[in-house]
Structures are given as C-alpha cells and as structure tokens.
Amino acid sequence: MKKIFVDTNIIIDLIADREPFSKFAIDLFSKAESNKVKLYTSSHSIATSHYLLKKYMDEKALRSVLSTLLDYLHVIPIETEMLKKGLHSKHKDFEDAIQMQCAYSIDKMDCIVTRNIKDFHNCEIPVMTPDEIVKIINP
To answer: If you placed Cys at 31, which of 1, 2, 22, 37 could pair as Cys (CB 3.0 to 4.6 Å)?
Structure first.
C-alpha cells in the first residue's frame, strides 16, 4: 500500500471544494477510505487548515469535517527535533521544511503530494502534484 504525505493545500482543496483541484483531493481521499492508500499529514496541517478555513465556514461544520478526515489521515505530531532540523535546513519556507521533516519520519514514505512542487525542491522523497498521484493510484 502506498504511503502518501498530504500537504496542507490538498486538505484545503478538499474541504473548500476549490475547483478544479478538489476532484484530485476527493479521489485521493476516496482511495484512503477504501484502504488502497495510506495518507499522512502533519499536526500542523490540521491546525493550519482550520485556521484558514474558519473564515469561510461555520465553526461547528468545519470541526466536524476535520474530525471526519482524521479517520483517513495518519497525523504525524511535530516534535522539537523536526523543528530544529527545519530551522537549520536550506529550505526558504520553514513550514515546508517542517512538512518534509514529518514525511521523513515515516519509513518508506512513497511521496509528498502538494500543489506547490517548487517549495519542495531538494526533497529526499519524490514530490508529486495531485493529478500525478491520482494517475498512479488509478491504473
């Protein structure tokens, strides 16, 4: 089973139904629901998704959606060592450096899925766009 790290923007695409991107997020999460892939994200992604979406959604509804998503996501807690490595990394975007550290913490992570590929340059794990991973998981 493929292990896929999901970046924050994919979660937001799904919840906010940001077209045309949401169709790929929906496909990815439906594969997780049917146990065809294993999805991971950072604890930071859940908190950031809530922070960004609360301006556009009812609080109760947003919490309910996030709670449901947790049934299909394995959340990686951000630890001090990850923060230190992120701070000392060569990546300009600290948030993305943390995301990479979280993905590195899982043995044999297959890829990171994001719409911001350029922010993950020099990543040790393959980085794909949502449409690329959907082509792979839908043979």
So the answer is: 37
User: Phi and psi (nearest 5°) for 40?
Assistant: -125, 155
CATH number of the domain that 60 lies in? 3.40.50.1010
How many domains is the chain partitioned into structurally?
Answer: 1
**Distance in angstroms (rounded) separating the CA atoms of residues 20 and 116:** 15
Q: Distance between CA atoms of 95 and 80, rounded to whole angstroms?
A: 14
Map residue 61 onto helix, strand or coil. helix
Write the pLDDT tens digit of every residue in 29-55.
999 999 999 999 999 999 999 999 999
| 4 in Cβ contact with 133 (< 8 Å) | yes
* Domain housing 40: 2-137
pTM of the model: 0.93
Which helix H or strand E contains 107, and what residues bound it? none
pLDDT in tens, 63-89: 999 999 999 999 999 999 999 999 998
